[in-house]
Write a structure and sequence with these properties.
It contains three helices and no strands. With about 70 residues, it is mainly α.
């Protein structure tokens, strides 16, 4: 999958000369997962799902806020 995404990126953006694109992602984490991320700062992170992103920061913040209402998040 990584190689396929890398190839697709190369095909679509090899001639792109516009400004960088900023994308936002909102995600709630359990307290345990957040603590783990703090301990491995500077290390690698693996996600077992696809990432949904938005060019609008509010959309991501709203998603994270709604997700964080669950217990232990």
């Amino acid at each position: 999958l990584h190689r396929q995404l890398e190839q697709l990126h190369h095909e679509q953006f090899s001639h792109y000369r516009g400004p960088p694109v900023t994308l936002y992602r909102g995600q709630a984490l359990s307290v345990d997962d957040f603590d783990h991320l703090q301990r491995i700062r500077g290390g690698l992170i693996a996600f077992n799902n696809f990432l949904s992103t938005s060019q609008t920061a509010f959309v991501s913040f709203d998603f994270a806020r709604k997700s964080s209402l669950r217990e232990n998040m």
